[in-house]
Design goal:
By secondary structure, the chain is of the alpha+beta class. The protein has two domains: 144 residues, 2-Layer Sandwich (Gyrase A, domain 2); 84 residues, no CATH class. Helix content is 19%, strand content 35%. It is built from six helices and 16 strands. The protein has a six-stranded mixed sheet, with helices on both faces. It has a five-stranded antiparallel sheet with strand order 3-4-5-2-6, covered by helices on one side. Strand 3 and strand 4 form a beta hairpin. The longest helix has 14 residues. The protein is globular and about 50 Å long.
Length: 283
């Protein structure tokens, strides 16, 4: 039975200028994306900080869906609307679509295929794409599909995201982190070769000249209760999405400096957290 992804939000961009508008605003190359494919993408501030992180689905030449990895779809719609001007593009939050986490059998039953890599599968208005780590797919549909809201299944889905290095960017963390700190160059979720977009100069400078000292890490730690996104580790580290894997033990994605990660098995340092272990770095 499919897992209902309760925190998921969707924004639709439609019209003859939808792809050109998205390409001008977002950091990845939307115009190079053919209909029937998808990519990871970000909308950056002029200072190069990540405002929103999302999967961008181009199911037709004139329609794009954004599946947000945190943040508020209505807030994103309102911010993007400021830049529409005379572009022929409409922005709409799709509250009618459900976002479901599916296995191979479930997604095949819904769309008749199990898409691989960056391909989309579509049938009867439903869309599906494959996500990293394990055999799992995202299904977007307005149809009634048997789904569950099971704590154990939800925990496993979040843990799979952590193992895949897919950050969930809480609204409180918007406009604070560079995409390289979040490991988004690994996906890749931004381009260093396409035309201008907000934050491009900052991203290009860091990419071509180097100097990045913060990286996305998979960590575990002991805690009495799950910390909020943005909880500090030492002076420069920050927790992103975290999940309890057993009593008083959690796993999470965290942004750490090289110096903080190098302390590894010791307490990297937080009053609320203890026995912090760095499991791996995404690079």
């Amino acid at each position: 039975m499919a897992l209902a992804l309760a925190t998921s939000q969707l924004l639709e961009l439609s019209g003859i200028d939808a792809a050109r508008f998205a390409n001008a605003q977002f950091a990845n190359d939307v115009l190079a994306l053919q209909a029937g494919r998808w990519q990871w993408n970000v909308w950056l501030s002029p200072q190069g900080r990540v405002r929103w992180f999302f999967a961008l689905l181009r199911d037709t030449p004139e329609r794009i869906l954004l599946w947000l990895r945190g943040g508020d779809a209505e807030a994103l719609r309102a911010e993007l609307a400021k830049f529409v001007f005379r572009s022929q593009v409409s922005l709409r939050v799709r509250t009618d679509l459900l976002a479901l986490g599916c296995d191979e059998a479930e997604v095949f039953a819904a769309v008749g295929a199990c898409p691989e890599r960056d391909l989309l599968a579509a049938r009867d208005g439903a869309l599906a794409l494959r996500l990293p780590f394990g055999a799992r797919w995202l299904l977007l549909t307005s149809l009634t599909v048997p789904s569950l809201n099971n704590e154990s299944a939800a925990t496993q889905w979040q843990l799979d995201d952590i193992h895949a290095g897919l950050p969930m960017l809480d609204a409180s963390l918007q406009d604070q982190l560079l995409p390289q700190w979040l490991g988004l160059d690994r996906l890749p979720a931004f381009s260093t070769s396409k035309g201008c977009y907000p934050g491009q100069e900052v991203i290009a400078r860091l990419h071509f000249k180097g100097g990045n000292k913060r990286w996305l890490h998979h960590v575990s730690f002991a805690c009495e209760r799950l910390p909020s996104p943005g909880a500090r580790i030492a002076d420069t580290g920050m927790l992103l999405n975290a999940v309890l894997v057993r009593a008083h033990r959690a796993e999470a994605l965290a942004v750490l400096t090289d110096a903080a990660a190098a302390s590894h098995a010791g307490n990297v340092g937080s009053e609320a957290l203890s026995d912090i272990q760095v499991i791996s770095r995404f690079s």
